[in-house]
Structure formats: structure tokens, C-alpha cells
Amino acid sequence: MAQTKRKRRRKQRGTQGGRIDRRPARGRARSRAEAQNRARSRTKKKPGDRTPQPPNWGSAIKKGAVAAVLFVGILALMGQQPIASLLIGILLLGFYIPMAYLMDSFFYRRHIRKEAEKRVEREKQRAGQQQAQE
After folding, report:
1. How confident is the model at residue 74 (pLDDT cuts 50, 70, 90)?
2. What pLDDT is recorded for position 35?
3. Is residue 63 within 8 Å of 96, Cβ to Cβ?
4. d(CA 54, CA 109)
5. Which terminal residue of the chain has fewer beta carbons within 10 Å of its beta carbon, N or C?
6. What is the radius of gyration, based on Cα positions, of the chain?
7. Strand 13-14 to strand 20-21: parallel, antiparallel, or no bridges (unpaired)?
8. In a 3-state reduction of DSSP, which class is residue 99?
9. Would the CA dihedral through 68, 69, 70, 72 be positive or negative?
10. What Cα–Cα distance (Å) separates residue 63 from each residue in 32, 69, 92, 99?
């Protein structure tokens, strides 16, 4: 009796976490320290660890537009006439855009200043450690 041909199946290895590695391991085995460093580099940063971006007018326009639209919506919900609320929204848009840019630049400069202070502090500690070793 002729035998039907079946595709050869590969063994699937599971990890302790329950994940199944379908591809075989490549290269040399990692040491525990290398694996830990790789896992640390993969972890996502916490929301509080965000570094501010340099200020630009594009983001300021977006922030100002969102604020103006919200304000126009609130005025419309409060019963203000649509034309009057739109005019007030346009006026506030002219105010919100520069304010958003100034706030972005303030927070960015503050972040840069704090990073510089940290760098100076680390250099002082290194210099103190080197003098203690001598």
C-alpha cells in the first residue's frame, strides 16, 4: 500500500514564560549578563521619563488649534452664537499658538539645563573618586 507523503514537522520549543520559539536559535549562546542587558534595552521607558523635543512652530500650531477648537465647542455648548464663538476661537488661536511655543521652549531649556547640571555633578564625583584613589 502506498504511503501518503506528509510534510516533516519541526519540534517547537517552549520557554518558561509560555512563548514558543518557532525559529531555531542562531549564533552562539548568550551569557546571563548579555541576556539581562538585552532585556533591559528592550523595556519601554516610563511615561515620566520622556525627554522634551526642541520647540517648533508645527507642534505649537497643533496645540493651539486643539485648544481653540475645545474652547469654541465649550462656547457653543453654553449657548453662544456660532459666529461669535468662531470669532473668539480665531482670536484665541492667535494667542494660543505663541503661548504653546513659549511653553515648549521653556520646558526644553529647563530640561537641557538640568541635564547639564547632572553632567557637571557626575564629573565632580568622578574627579573626587580619582583623587581619593591617588
Report:
1. very high
2. 82
3. yes
4. 9
5. N
6. 29
7. antiparallel
8. helix
9. positive
10. 46, 10, 12, 10
pTM for the model: 0.57
* Residue 19, all three cell numbers: 512563548
| HSE of 114, CA atoms in CB hemisphere, 13 A | 8
In this predicted model, what pLDDT tens digit does every residue of 83-115 receive, in sequence order?
Answer: 999 999 999 999 999 999 999 999 999 999 999
pLDDT, tens only, 28-70: 767 888 888 888 877 666 666 678 889 999 999 999 999 999 9
Q: 76 burial class (0-12, 13-18, 19+ CB within 10 angstroms)? A: middle
Q: What is the C-alpha end-to-end distance of the chain, expressed in Å?
A: 86
Give the mean pLDDT of 125-133: 77
Cβ(85)–Cβ(76) below 8 Å: yes
The answer to whether the beta carbons of residues 100 and 60 sit under 8 Å apart is yes
Q: What pLDDT does 107 receive?
A: 94
pLDDT at 103: 95
AA identity, residue 122: R
C-alpha cell read off for 26: 542562531
Tell which residue, 64, 59, 82, 63, has the closest CA to residue 72. 82
